[in-house]
Amino acid sequence: EGPRQLWPAGEGPQVPDKETKATMGTENTPGGKASPDPQDVRPSVFHNIKLFVLCHSLLQLAQLMISGYLKSSISTVEKRFGLSSQTSGLLVSFNEVGNTALIVFVSYFGSRVHRPRMIGYGAILVALAGLLMTLPHFISEPYRYDNTSPEDMPQDFKASLCLPTTSAPARTHSNGNCSSYTETRHLSVVGIMFVAQTLLGVGGVPIQPFGISYIDDFAHNSNSPLYLGILFAVTMMGPGLAFGLGSLMLRLYVDINQMPEGGISLTIKDPRWVGAWWLGFLIAAGSVALAAIPYFFFPKEMPKEKHELQFRRKVLAVTDSPARKDKDSPSKQSPGESTKKQDGLVQIAPNLTVIQFIKVFPRVLLQTLRHPIFLLVVLSQVCLSSMAAGMATFLPKFLERQFSITASYANLLIGCLSFPSVIVGIVVGGVLVKRLHLGPVGCGALCLLGMLLCLFFSLPLFFIGCPSHQIAGITHQTSAQPRPELFPSCMEVCSCPSDGFNPVCDPSTRVEYITPCHAGCSSQVVQDALDKSQVFYTNCSCVAEGNPVMAGSCDSTCSHLVVPFLLLVSLGSALACLTHTPSFMLILRGVKKEDKTLAVGIQFMFLRILAWMPSPVIHGSAIDTTCVHWALSCGRRAVCRYYNNDLLRNRFIGLQFFFKTGSVICFALVLAILRQQDKEARTKESRSSPAVAQQLLVSGPGKKPEDSRV
């Protein structure tokens, strides 16, 4: 059971393939590969399982980096292509669609294919999907941050000013861009990204399960847990690297490969700034492609480490006797009876056709779902995974909007604080289970304690945040679309375009205007400083005493709160991750021995379908409901310009709190059931006859209570 415990609960399908391969090898090929392999393949460097572990660690690191990179640049992609948070959440969840649709067949095909080569093909597909994600950047026109024509090199100069004679043509020009060609191009760009995300998921299907099973088949039995632990530790750095890469790339301007002649007047702090999101996909795709090369040289099978013939015999011994000694199995059959009576999907899968495989799957699925402990633990993990998926997808955007920080800084903070805390939580949870020798009741208690503490430290998050900016004509507005009568009457003569966006700030009153035109400004002044130039707009009829206004959004007075906020989030994440290993152990101990392998696969499927796929869409929809000003593109809602910060915080953190509460309830029910079973087992034992008690002592003192309470 060692390798299973070391691997994350959401990535379980590797286990069916591992045991299938091992069982088949024991039955069908007791020594067929023993004699030729050692001499024939010893000279080749690729007949070395240690090299495979190294290559697979690097590949999974690169794969998680490319799949996590979109989350780090989600707000940038929204701004660049005019997407709502609901649409971007759907885009993220499409990564799971292709993966979930095909993962069921891994256990069927696992023993019939050239696994390293299949991993290589999958990695190449992932790299191509990463390249496809960059295509929208190259087929789109250069980014225009004020909806002006390419001829207007200083894009935010005359187009945003209060000039009645030129404003009407500007408005008709803006609406004139809405041709059927423009709409078709927008749909094709979004469609390309959805296809690329689906292919990213499809390419990832063979990588993890086949890699884990290959390592476990050809590593020495005692080395396998160590190799999988190393693999897990290296792989977990992938998302952190993705956010670090995002932090670097988003400091560069999006059109760095085709900058306008006059340069750009934007700074990274400008709300219209769009970073080079596509460059990260190029780098990550190149990393995956390089990591895929060695897989085409690894053999289909290689000599086992040290004891080739004994390894396959030991697999059944490891899954039978130590599992019983560690109280991992509720089955009361002897090893021989257990092997004969195993009719789980894993044992019969190699002998079935694809159609028969699909037909038998629902029956075994329902059989596994009848275990109450299994069902409740999986439901609690669904709640935790929903929380994690929403947080990983939209936390960068939330920090960016709530605390008025740049996307680059938000990614840097998350990469340095949140992901290391997740790793620490998982490791500490595993150490506690091992050091304290926790049984099922102990595992349930640890899970409940971790989630209660996580819930407690989530409460202050509702009160740490920044108030919404005062936006002239928008802050007290009820409808989603701005109406001219809601703006001050002083700017009505300006005929400002409704879809303009070039925010300016009145430093004396800290009121923000969406364009200089909405502030009634008619001229622009540029003051050159040593390091950068500051743009001011003057002659502003809507500003008190006609004070000049500064280009850019008003600075937030509480941006410093982002660090304590994220420290609390990271602490909560670490406490939630304490439950990872003990909850996984409860799943392994809460079902019959012959159903364990399939239970892990079913758990993986439920997490994908019920958590990782819908959660980003749910969080994105919740974020959209807090928007107070939408940018309009051809009459449709595009990207949100301004949010109600209090509503945004309450709904985003509230959704997280809801999922955490669901997890606490499930773990509390698990602990209650386990304690009741434990009580019944002790009562039954105390009433048993002395002869039976003596028999129990002979067969194993602590076995009966543990088996009964599971």
UniProtKB/TrEMBL annotation:
PROSITE patterns (UniProt xref): KAZAL_2
Record region (Disordered): 1-39, 320-343, 681-710
Cell compartments where the protein resides: Cell membrane
TM spans (from-to): 90-111, 118-139, 189-214, 226-254, 274-298, 373-395, 407-433, 445-465, 561-588, 609-632, 652-674
Pfam families referenced in this protein's UniProt entry, alphabetically: OATP (PF03137)
One GO-annotated biological process of the protein: monoatomic ion transport
Principal subcellular localisation of the protein: membrane
Domain Kazal-like: 484-544
KW Oxidoreductase (keyword) present: no
Membrane topology: Multi-pass membrane protein
Highest taxon of the lineage: Eukaryota
GO CC, any one term: apical plasma membrane
MF terms in GO: bile acid transmembrane transporter activity; prostaglandin transmembrane transporter activity; sodium-independent organic anion transmembrane transporter activity
Keywords, sorted A to Z: Cell membrane, Disulfide bond, Ion transport, Membrane, Transmembrane, Transmembrane helix, Transport
Entry similarity comment: Belongs to the organo anion transporter (TC 2.A.60) family.
PANTHER family cross-referenced by the UniProt entry: ORGANIC ANION TRANSPORTER, SOLUTE CARRIER ORGANIC ANION TRANSPORTER FAMILY MEMBER 2B1
Stated name of the protein: Solute carrier organic anion transporter family member
Organism: Macaca fascicularis (Crab-eating macaque)
Name of the gene encoding the protein in the UniProt record: SLCO2B1
